[in-house]
Amino acid sequence: MTLTNQELRDRFAPFISRRDADRHINIFWETQPSAFSEPGKQFIELSGGMPHTSFFPIESMSVNILTAPGSTDTINVPITHETPSSLALKHTLQYALSEGFQPLIDFVRAFVTRLGNVPQYDPSLWQCLIANGSCDSLFKIFQTCTDERSVVLVEELTFVPVISNILATGAKVVPLKLSMRDDDQGIDTTYMEDLLANWETGPYAAYDRPKFLYTIPTGQNPTGLTQSVDKRRKIYALAQKYDFVILEDDPYGYLKFPKFNHEKPMENPYISTEMTTEQYARDVLMTSYISMDTDGRVIRFETFSKIFAPGMRLSFVILNNFFYEKLLKFQEITTRQPTGISQQIVYSTIHAMAPTKNTDDVIEAWLHWIMKLACSYTDRRNVMLDALYNSEAYKRGLYSVVEPSAGMFIIVNVNVDEKRAPVIQQMDELIRVMDKHGVRAILGYKMAVDREFSKDHLNFFRLTYAYADNHEQLREAVTRLSDSVVEYLA
Amino acid sequence: MTLTNQELRDRFAPFISRRDADRHINIFWETQPSAFSEPGKQFIELSGGMPHTSFFPIESMSVNILTAPGSTDTINVPITHETPSSLALKHTLQYALSEGFQPLIDFVRAFVTRLGNVPQYDPSLWQCLIANGSCDSLFKIFQTCTDERSVVLVEELTFVPVISNILATGAKVVPLKLSMRDDDQGIDTTYMEDLLANWETGPYAAYDRPKFLYTIPTGQNPTGLTQSVDKRRKIYALAQKYDFVILEDDPYGYLKFPKFNHEKPMENPYISTEMTTEQYARDVLMTSYISMDTDGRVIRFETFSKIFAPGMRLSFVILNNFFYEKLLKFQEITTRQPTGISQQIVYSTIHAMAPTKNTDDVIEAWLHWIMKLACSYTDRRNVMLDALYNSEAYKRGLYSVVEPSAGMFIIVNVNVDEKRAPVIQQMDELIRVMDKHGVRAILGYKMAVDREFSKDHLNFFRLTYAYADNHEQLREAVTRLSDSVVEYLA
């Protein structure tokens, strides 16, 4: 049947927590524009408790932006109270709407539409909501949707602060097995299908059936795994069959890499093929869950943290009208509005990257920036993998590596001998040896949702190649890691 | 007895909601610095999923700041990845600590200490927490502290979005009567004392005794009322006697005005006395609740929204260590950190206002800016009061005015005839007449917590003098208001 707003309400009302029913907004201001129109006379607002713009200490600003990641060429972007006219300082310094500034919403919407990261149903039934970072939006979604009766499926190893937010609503989390095979990365769909088909006789029979799946489909944190398109289609079909909503958290989606070439470790197809943004968008980027969504059951979280800067605290959510209204209402009485100055800087920077203000040109310029970032990350990934494969510890079989094709992380599984001591104890000891050698990584077991469930996946480190100063530092870090493992295990 | 962290925990544990007990943070990263130290070798971090700074599109920026509100003189403030060295872009664009950047925390702490807006107990037992706006911090405090068992005292007319946040936790709100007499502005302490002394036989006997008072003590929203120091002392004594916590929301505290002079309406003592910041701080600014606090029972909310710009979404909370840990933990898994770029701009701007980087000089410069703002607001308040007192409707006794000595708001009580029609209906009709005349204000009844309780206070409009373009527009607005009231009532 054709989706409508009414149908969205009927379909998703059961996905709302009892908490949301307690959330009422007291709107005390008039939201309708005045009908006043008298030639030569201006309507006067005495309503909003807003300082006049002359009271803001900032008269204007300018931002020097890079023409490409790592470049030294810059473009100066002037921003004043009146310019750019589409989004000027006098507005962004002021109180503003909770959903974000319309020009930024329009850009974001055009951008995700260009990449096909939009639902298949009527475009009037979904929205892009600008927000203060995906972490906060996820918190708000769980507060809105889950309570003591709710069950959320999650990857067995995941970004655990999100788990804190789920548990804080009283909901339960149920881990899903991850496959780490090169040809089958991510959620183990055989396990998942079996779990769902036999829920009432399975290990979680005491719980209700799950209403949500929280997943990081591309460059997963901490594992670096990327789900294939086939896997995504299978999981979406399961979502339809067993009626759950998919929360697609995709901070790393744009940092997508061609496959690592063992013969030519430093090969970077972004450079060697002179890749165009067209090829990048079509052949490299992954098909998102939201692009498969015919039902309104996918909520997609994107952020500017990894492709612009975390200090902006700026992100957006793509979601159907029903969930949108709920999340917007929650923003209105809490964070109130995404930071205006962040919206200003991100909007102005992206627009300054383009030769014209034509939307297609701006999208193309931003896509170009992002592709260049992905290219740099590919180099870093190559360097680290190359260093790992050539390391002493690897050659002696003391650890194995899971190859990422997206994101910021590589995991290294250390072949500890379980008979010697508990795995966690050994990993704790090993990280102290690493500290002595001058290198630190994340202890994988700390990102397990349930250590008993993931008892075969507690022996890894999450390494990032994102933060090092240069390639030499990455190689040096791997040498220190390898030396530590050799010292500890050999 | 001397306050200690243990004593704070014991004393305030009963002020924590059952929700907080469900809030556990999964910290998966190492929080201790490494002990690694080897000459000529640098410790290498592969832990944090942070982009290298060369991936941020911003190379540098510069902000042109005003030397005084409304001035056209500007100072150029350069900000680069390395400067100012105390807080540089490479840090503020990056992921950072949830409590805010230490240099900004230090400044804020020194600033409130200079003004005496700090508790009386041991300085090691309280903190300044940087946050994303007071609205969000209040939301987080209520989530942390209140639940179905809780009762919160509030002014009968208040900033109602906060009420939404209290009710959303399941807590009850109990309105307190407001006195609008010039010589007794704000919470009616006789009523309050009686209510508390006879709680078990009073109108709210079915509720537990209140654990919190939420108050806007200076330039209250919507009434513009400012509580005298005596009143504050009485209320603090009640807080001690009946053991409740005071949530002091003080967005307007710095916008404090000398009393309106009916003989010389445009008199502005900031100008006529060439007021110094010393006099402003000592004689004009109000004594805050937190400055009276010996017990840890005041939590103070300050914001940069009214004295810098709302679009920064930057604020801070002054609170004891026990509540601090709770609120910080909540920030960590939600908004994650106050916007870095906002902290950068606010910090850099304030420091650029001073002739040296000496903290006393920076405090003095910022105080000077704030005092100039208060001076401009005094002019605007004077203009609007003068226009109101000279308006046709006032002269015909159709409305009265409550004189503010702080903030952004004046309320006008319209003398509607209750026999003619319900007050709310008449106010709704009147605002439509105002719309026809080209002016809009806030309907006071929409800011009542309980319309039955406040049935004698439903006949007012909240006007702001903050937002008008100039004094002429303020006068024109009042003329239109007056014309509307005359047309409707006469």
How would you concisely characterize the structure shown here?
Chains A, B: Residues 129-481 form the Aminotransferase class I/classII large domain. The first copy, chain A, has helices at 5-12, 18-21, 89-92, 102-114, 134-145, 160-168, 189-197, 229-241, 269-272, 277-284, 321-332, 340-352, 359-389, 392-395, 423-437, 471-489; strands at 44-45, 58-66, 74-80, 126-131, 151-155, 172-176, 178-181, 184-187, 212-215, 245-249, 298-303, 315-320, 399-402, 409-414, 439-440, 442-443, 460-464.
Primary descriptors:
alpha/beta; 2-aminoadipate transaminase activity (chains A, B); 490 residues; seven-stranded mixed β-sheet; 16 helices; four-stranded antiparallel β-sheet; Aspartate Aminotransferase, domain 1; homodimer; 36% helix; Aspartate Aminotransferase, domain 2
Reconstruct the topology from this structure.
The structure is a homodimer of 490-residue chains.
Chain A: H1 5-12, H2 18-21, E1 44-45, E2 58-66, E3 74-80, H3 89-92, H4 102-114, E4 126-131, H5 134-145, E5 151-155, H6 160-168, E6 172-176, E7 178-181, E8 184-187, H7 189-197, E9 212-215, H8 229-241, E10 245-249, H9 269-272, H10 277-284, E11 298-303, E12 315-320, H11 321-332, H12 340-352, H13 359-389, H14 392-395, E13 399-402, E14 409-414, H15 423-437, E15 439-440, E16 442-443, E17 460-464, H16 471-489
Parallel strand pairs in A: 5-6, 5-9, 9-10, 10-11
Antiparallel strand pairs in A: 2-3, 4-12, 7-8, 11-12, 13-14, 14-17, 16-17
Cofactor (chains A, B): pyridoxal 5'-phosphate
Keywords (chains A, B): Aminotransferase, Pyridoxal phosphate, Transferase
GO molecular function, one term (chains A, B): 2-aminoadipate transaminase activity
